[in-house]
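Q: My labmate handed me this sequence with no annotations at all. I'd like to see what the chain might look like in three dimensions before we decide whether it's worth expressing. Could you predict it?
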Amino acid sequence: MGIAMVLIILVLTYPNLPSLEVLTDYRPKIPLRVYTADGYLIGEFGEERRAVVSIRDVPEVMKHAILAAEDDRFYQHGGVDYTGILRAAGANLLGGGKRQGASTITQQVARNFFLTGEKTYTRKLYEALLSFKIESNLSKDEIFELYINQIFLGQRAYGFAAAAQIYFGKPLKDISIAEAAMLAGLPKAPSAYNPVVNPNRAKLRQRYVLRRMRELSHISDTQYEAALKEPLVIKRELSGYAVHAEYVAEMARQITAERFPEDVYSRGMKVYTTIIKAEQEAAYNGLRKGVMDYDRRHGYRGAESYLDMKGIKSDQDEAIDEALQDIADAGDLIPALVLAADAKAIKAYRKGGEVVTLSGDAMKFAARMLDDKSPANKRLKRGAIIRLHKDDKNNWQISQLPEVESAFVAVDPKDGAIRALVGGFDFNRNKFNHVTQAWRQPGSSFKPFIYSASLEKGYNPGSVIADAPIVIPASETGSQAWEPHNYDGKYEGPMKMRTALAKSKNMVSIRLLQAIGTGYAQDYATRFGFDAARHPPYLTMALGAGSATPWQMVSGYAVFANGGYRVNPFVVREIRDERNQVMAHSAEIEAGDESLRAIDARNAFMMDSMLRDVTIYGTAAKASVALKRHDLAGKTGTTNEYVDAWFCGYQMTVAGCAWIGFDQPKKLGNRETGGAAALPIWIDYMARALKDVPLQVPSAPDGLIAIGEGRDRYYIYAENINLERSAEEEALAGVPPQAPDFSLPPAD
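A: Here is what I predict for the chain of 748 residues:
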């Protein structure tokens, strides 16, 4: 009677099972993916992180690991494994409870595509019937391929190809036996066996899979032992991406979503940016190093927070791991819990399970916070949360999260393509993109634009200007008298413009601006892409008291680098659809197109000459020393009270701009100039960007006349030759030369 009832149910139910079209016409949700110009993945956006792979491209070791973990008789049964059911039932009976399941790979496919996860007899019946239908319509390999691509494996990863990239940062074809076993252990319980969240449980599950692989003769005893010993490097923070370019990926996402809002996160679109992997790595590492070096110069601030240790029973208590999981990594700054601390050593439990002992130089940075006289809420003691990082020798050192922020951006002056961009110290901590969104005073890094304007008013690099104190009366300022001063408080009397720029003499910049007119300079700056409203027409403009973003600054310096053309920076090269067809492409206009000309080629050449002096014997001289090149040009920038530090500069093939400061503006510290705080970031990037680039300097364009020889040589506009002597004589007397009549319209 019971068998008859089952048969009746089967006859009535089977015809009403859902269509398998979703399987036969498989169209998974594929996220929006963002790549570097050289094809490396830097970001994914979508509910599901998935990479679809053909069964023939799945390595045998991965297939064997999955079968060993989930369904070793997959190629023998017809959808439901009766032998497996009996084996699981026996194991559960002997074990005194539910210990093993018996769902086949086919049943899991049925459940994932058509059913919920509820545990009822009705659902199990439908699952079995659907499994029979799937088996009768699809081949075993087709079913296995669906499973490999559809199954959820934690970290928003769907499918083993995506999981290999996310957990290990490598394509599926390159994984080892040990890595395959770790991945194959995830389907049973992705949250419980996630190696990022629960590394200890994940290791136990991996060992089980390896044991099953050996029992089924998929691997030898030697391979088994080697896999057990293989250390697994889990990409905790990078999430499988080739390089840190989170700010670029987010920019690309916004651009794509605005242009193609429909199904942007599920149709598998690909965005190719302009950044170059090796240069992006150099920019990221250089910025991180620059910020950390600054931070160490200003001392250790103490414990990040404290963990209540009352419930912690041992130094290996799982509660420690669980508590540390709630504290985000910040790149290579790993959170750790202090287990014991005194003047001789610090013992800490590092996120991930390792107990680290710091002594000697490794704890020197934090020594003052081990003293009983240190603030109680910052003292290093049992329960304190600290940060660890590895030094150049791969040894653990105590560190801390910096409070200061930074930004770096590099552009190709030829067409405006962004080659590297880092919008802040850590994207996961602060998503504010300082390259495009931070409006800060540029300080002395703005002076070149004032100097460029003065060249159009009849000045030249050899013009002599008085470097002497100046007082602007209240009648001119409209409020109170202004008494500016040079950075070092020293005044050197009359000097050539090129020397004044190299030494960043404030008095000379102010006198130049006074002579050409603030209104003229304000308007002239717009040629480089600056907003006139953000640079009010006051004499303080000479000291960079307006506001600009690093994006604008690098755009302005690119004009000097390419011979006078204004190119618009862009970060997305092209957008492709799921069929790899181009949907949108950047409009690439290169320098050389006269419609893009911003300043006279002669002006750009003379500015380049003066800016190279800055990097050879001026405030940025360590650039040419460090990089061993004399074709570098640029300008340091330090704002009043050391609030912002800049260095913007270039070589003919690439322009870059580095900034460092606090989000809530405050003093960086005495002597934290652009040359001390920002220039090292720029140097680290340029060391990579210019690695194989030959030395090159621009040739003088027509319409210039050379004056002097050797280091004293400079150029002037040919039409200004008759003005040279009178201008120099007046300047020596402390009177700025007047603008010649044939120059651009007179200043306001």
